[in-house]
Design brief:
The chain is mainly alpha-helical. Helices cover 67% and strands 4% of the residues. The termini are far apart.
Length: 97
């Protein structure tokens, strides 16, 4: 894959910046260079994205656990209110008899 790279020397020769910059150096493999193995790309990928992916997964797990805890608490409160209401209803029923 050929990608243009602006060389440092060429940038110093052209202090006006990138406007009018006509000299490009193309990257290519020369006769003495070995091709890069695909293993290098996977290592680079994991070095770059392991921490962000782990962070997102950890935050998602925390959010899920927080929502689950809230749901269980609401369920317990509802069951407790229903049972308290039943006891009150049974208590008033026995007093009326």
């Amino acid at each position: 894959m050929m990608t243009p790279i602006f060389t440092k020397r060429a940038m110093l020769k052209n202090p006006g910046g990138l406007r009018g910059f006509a000299q490009l150096r193309m990257n290519s493999t020369q006769a003495g260079q070995k091709p890069v193995s695909p293993h290098v790309y996977t290592v680079g990928f994991y070095k770059t994205f392991t921490r962000p992916v782990a962070k997102v997964l950890l935050m998602a797990t925390f959010t899920y656990q927080l929502a689950y805890w809230g749901w269980v608490k609401l369920e317990k409160d509802e069951i407790k209110r229903e049972k308290t209401g039943e006891w009150r209803h049974l208590g008033t029923e026995s007093l009326a008899d």
